[in-house]
Amino acid sequence: MDPLFERLHAVFGYDTFRPHQEDIVRQVVGGGDALVIMPTGGGKSLCYQLPALLRPGTGIVVSPLIALMQDQVAALKQLGVQAEFLNSSLSAEAARRVENDLLAGRLDLLYVAPERLLTERFLGLLERIKPALFAIDEAHCVSQWGHDFRPEYVQLSLLHERFPRVPRIALTATADAPTRKEIAQRLQLEAARHFVTGFDRPNIRYQVRVDEGGAREQLLRFIEERHAGEAGIVYCLSRRKVDEVADWLNGKGLTALPYHAGMDGAQRKHNQSRFLNEDGIIMVATIAFGMGIDKPDVRFVAHLSLPKSLEAYYQETGRAGRDGEPAEAWMRYSLADAILLRQMVDNSEADEAHKRLERRKLDAMLGYCELTSCRRQALLAYFGDVLPEPCGNCDNCLEPQETWDATEAARKALSCVHRTGQRFGVTYLIDVLLGKDDERIRRFGHDRVSTFGIGTDLGEREWRAVFRQLVARGHLKVDAEGHGGLALSDTCRPLLKGEETLEVGRQHLEPRRKRGKSGTKARAGAPALAGNPLFQALRDKRMELARAQGVPPYVVFADKTLAAMVEVRPQSLAEFARLSGVGEHKLERYGEAFLAVIRGNG
Ligand code: ADP
Ligand code: ZN
Prior knowledge:
CATH superfamily of the largest domain: P-loop containing nucleotide triphosphate hydrolases
Bound molecules: adenosine-5'-diphosphate, zinc ion
Shape: globular
Number of helices: 29
Number of strands: 17
């Protein structure tokens, strides 16, 4: 048998490679260099872990985040791989022990922080052993333009100079071309083979709806119906909202924990550790939460308000489904969110050029929400990736929105903004269009303008959609003073002159759930699993084993492997060994324990 597949199966318990993995592994095993651009969840770690096992010597992995290192090493140990890490969290004595193991050739993989790797002392150690390879994880940290810039990363080119014969593999999920070029240059990887997989996260289903009231209740229903007992993150804009939503969800019988910068550090740490180490916790958080969180089995990410840019949205939703299993990105947004974010930009200390950029990003975000076509295509296009066909796994693909011609309505709306002096907010403008009997309107004399009462052919909901669309397209701009007043911008002229039309989507209030359609299958079976007593018993067993070792449950077995146990119901170790995710070590260590649970729940 091909040693590649033999190790893949024996150690990791997998039968097949994910896209690109095999080519990358062969390249590195053969002593060549590689630059790997693969989205989160694509399976990057295997690309250096497997070659490290196949080549003589120890694989040296440079990694910038202590928490990620610890997670990886814990997962490798579960597989029976001799892995350790060296970073500032170790005592001097523990570090010495690891160094001795390294020198004695006892390690398959060693994770090390960049600043330690670059010390003369450590480089001296490396000269006394035989590194199997150098893996540079999160390689975008060399980019001076990115927000994760690490000065030590730039010096990693020194590895190539000191150890020219040791293959190097650099990996990142950051796929834009300038960053890629910068990585190749700075790490002297121009001659390396490049493997680029793009941005798509096909297992994430995108769903976006306007918040027309009742967003919280809709979130609850979404969690109960589609993600009962599963881990998820709920993002809110403010700390107050975080506390409120967490309390409310707890009151409904879910386990939700708050996380925001206003909490005391110890409490925050405690909540984060529960999220990582227990099953089915919902983290309600501001965007302060998420950096360096590598929990693979987050099944949903919900936004209760508009993110500030598509970059932020992609990153935050990207925390769902790192294990490659089906996951959902769910959002409720409103024009009020957009106005608030806009005011935050306008009132910030940044210079004008920067503000302009931030405004453009916000407009793109709102535009994405207002889309009636495939969301994934638009999201990828924004990052310069092309998806030739609609994805079949977003709300607009699964349940196409009807659109209506809102050109005439848009003209009335723009005219109303003009007639009332370009300083009122949406609610007021709609009241004028609907001809509401209102004291304020009379006081301003707006019951006598020509647009008073000309909009009664539409309801408030339609009018809101028209205004949102006008703001999303930049035809209306929000005032800088902070009252949410709307003013005309130059771009609205063609629309007023009848040279341009405006289409508005009729968003379904609550998605109807059609069964048996393509794409829906991605989730089929999962809700049933949550209530499945065998699945629950297997999860309990997993939790018990994880607790005893002080590791997160997902390093014992992934949910997918537990699901396979429920489906296959193996009766013997031989059958158990055939499950995906069961390598030799885990078979020996856990096989009997899980078989007993399966037999006991027949
Ligand atoms: P990345 O670092 O690219 O975000 P990971 O290396 O963490 O991704 O892998 C994501 C998930 O995919 C992990 O749960 C891993 O066990 C799983 N995985 C990786 N390669 C394979 C494979 N060949 N077959 C099945 N599962 C895989
Ligand atoms: Zn789609």
